[in-house]
Amino acid sequence: MREVNVVVLPGDGIGPEVISESIRAVEIVAKDADLSITWREELMGGCSIDVHGTALTDEVLAACQASDAVFLGAVGGPKWDTTDPSKPRPEQGLLGLRSGMQLFANLRPVKPLEALWDASPLRRDRIAGTDLLVVRELTGGIYFGASGRDGDSAFDTCTYSRAEIERVAEVAFAAANGRRKKVASVDKANVLESSRLWREVVTEVGARHPEIELEHILVDNAAMQLINRPSDFDVIVTENLFGDILSDEAAMITGSIGLLPSASLGTGVAGLYEPVHGSAPDIAGKGWANPMATVLSAALMLRYSLGAPEAADRLENAVAEALNHGAWGRDLGGELGTTEIGDRLCALLAR
Ligand code: IPM
Ligand code: MG
To answer: Could you please report the per-residue DSSP string of 151-183?
Structure first.
């Protein structure tokens, strides 16, 4: 038995519901892979603000830094919404983890299953064959630049260094190498200086990977092309804010944001894994949330941080098979609830 430590941060809203269903499924495949996972549950987000007055305590950050992986549900909700800069916000916990663990590359794969092609708001012929990966820079740019208020004005600054661009670009080219060997770098180089540096550095990194085809796309055009010709994209690499927006847009190609996993990786093997959807406070506690995005995030965790790629494949196959057999949550217009989907997955995995 190999032993690993995972910090679990269920968070707020539907977070705890989707996390507990996912852990059930992970336990089945981990056992078969001879992997013993110690789950250490901690507070992060709004639930931590309620208890400790801050979204992420130093103790929880230290536990995450010392872990093999962090498994996160979702954070946030109207209870903690505020525009007062002196008040704590749940999202600060997530941003603190990203920077505290130096998770500079966020990977969001988008691959709609054929069974779901009609669930997408896009026509079948547009989405057929789509299989793309958004690689979003996660610890720089406007999210972490100087910001503040000055009388009646407010400012946020977007700064990027060569090194920050280079390391995330390397992740994108390495990923493309195992895929269709195409990278689309998204920027706003016709207006922003940080984007001109981005384009310059990505071009340099691209020159070191001559087997990969590189194209540069302006972000407004990229937003349009994602809808117009999603299947043309392979790896999309972009800065933090553009990646935030484009990855939600790309998620809708699958018909539901309830199916999208993500992995946030740094220099080591420890990473943070979370569904792309948020805490969905409107349906929290109703048992309606689709745990599939979280199960798929657990698959990424098994593959990238816990060294159990076969277990990861099994989880992904179970989700695909369940969907092919009509196990659709409400997010897809189906009727199954959180535990029912969990039951279906566990039944498939236990065979
Ligand atoms: C995401 C989320 C976060 C972000 C929020 C919750 C801070 O939208 O992970 O995409 O903007 O990065
Ligand atoms: Mg987002």
So the answer is: TTEEEE-----HHHHHHHHHHHHHHHHTTTSEE
pLDDT at position 333:
86
> Is 131's C-beta closer than 6 angstroms to any atom of ligand 1?
no
Residues 163-212: tens digit of each pLDDT? 999 999 999 999 999 999 999 999 999 999 999 999 999 999 999 999 99
Give the pLDDT of residue 234: 98
Q: Which ranges of the chain does DSSP label H, i.e. alpha helix?
A: 15-32, 46-52, 58-66, 91-100, 124-127, 162-177, 193-207, 219-228, 240-251, 292-304, 309-324, 338-350
Cα 244 to averaged position of ligand 1 atoms, centre (Å)? 6
Residue 248 near ligand 1, beta carbon < 6 Å:
no
State which residues of the chain have pLDDT below 50: none
The pLDDT value recorded for residue 238 is 98
94 Cβ inside 6 Å of ligand 1: yes
Q: Are residues 224 and 303 in the same domain?
A: no
Closest residue by CA, ligand 1 atom 4:
244
| pTM of the predicted model over 0.85 | yes
pLDDT of 75 reads 97
Domain end call among 222, 239, 254: 254
Same structural domain for residues 40 and 67? yes
CATH number for the domain harbouring residue 133: 3.40.718.10
CA of 146 to the centre of ligand 2 (A): 20
Q: What is the pLDDT of residue 331?
A: 85
Position 312 scores a pLDDT of 97
Q: Which residues are bridge partners to 147 per DSSP?
A: 156
Counting ligands in written order, the one closest to the CA of 46 is 1
Q: In terms of residue numbers, what domain contains 21?
A: 1-105+258-351
* Total structural domains within the chain: 2
> Could you report how far apart the first and last alpha carbons of the chain are, in Å?
22
Residue 314 within a domain: yes
Residue 224 sits in the same domain as residue 149? yes
